[in-house]
Amino acid sequence: MPILEVAMLNVIPGRESEFEAAFREASTIIASRPGYRWHRLHRCLEEGWRYLLTVEWERREDHTEGFRGSPEYRLWRALLHHFYDPFPVVEHFVEVAL
Amino acid sequence: MPILEVAMLNVIPGRESEFEAAFREASTIIASRPGYRWHRLHRCLEEGWRYLLTVEWERREDHTEGFRGSPEYRLWRALLHHFYDPFPVVEHFVEVAL
Fold first, then answer.
1. Which helix (H) or strand (E) holds A16?
2. In terms of CB atoms within 10 Å, which end of chain A has fewer, N or C?
């Protein structure tokens, strides 16, 4: 069963456009990693500086070990991490059959 | 552009199975509402009592006015709201083109 990585990203207000441009560049990095399936970025209507990042991976380790342990992750971090305040909590989820 | 309703649900620890059963029943309620497109429930691997609910609506008002103003919402609430602690923040998101 695939794993959904979920992070609520609070971007420093006023830097949303810059963040979105950097995120587009960073998207090509994550999309090339083993075990990656898809990712999406959503922007909050109530608080426009808040974003929801969802990434589907084949296995949790594809994210926590494969991606985070890769040289590409350093570029991802350099592109994106300075936009966040506070630094996001990242969790992993499995779909519940309904 | 469709709207994603997002709620991080913290369920009282120990009541997860009961919540999931109630949620399955409640699923038929929300799925019959005008403007509803799909919904999913995900369970957190790090904190097993935390769930991510996502619901796609055609318009935000389909949720905030249509669903919440309907008699069916009272049943949804009666089935589910007593499982949450604290009561969740519900927000709405639009997808960012990447």
1. helix A16-30
2. N
A81 CA: distance to closest CA in chain B (Å) = 18
A94 CB neighbours in chain B (<8 A) are 42-43, 45
Using an 8 Å CB-CB cutoff, list residues of chain A that contact chain B: 3-4, 6, 8, 20, 23-24, 27, 39-47, 50-52, 60, 91-96, 98
Cβ–Cβ of B43/A3 closer than 8 Å?
no
Give the separation between CA B70 and CA B76, rounded to whole angstroms.
Answer: 10
ipTM of the complex: 0.95
Eight-class DSSP state of A82: G
The predicted model scores a pTM of 0.96
Minimal C-alpha gap between A93 and chain B (Å): 4
Give dist(CA A87, CA A96) in Å, integer: 28
Structural domains in chain A, sorted by start? 11-93 (3.30.70.100)
- Taking only the tens place, the pLDDT of each residue in B26-55 is 999 999 999 999 999 999 999 999 999 999
Considering only CA atoms, which of B47, B46, B45, B39 is closest in space to residue B80? B39
- Comparing CA positions, the residue from A13, A4, A9, A6 lying closest to residue A80 is A9
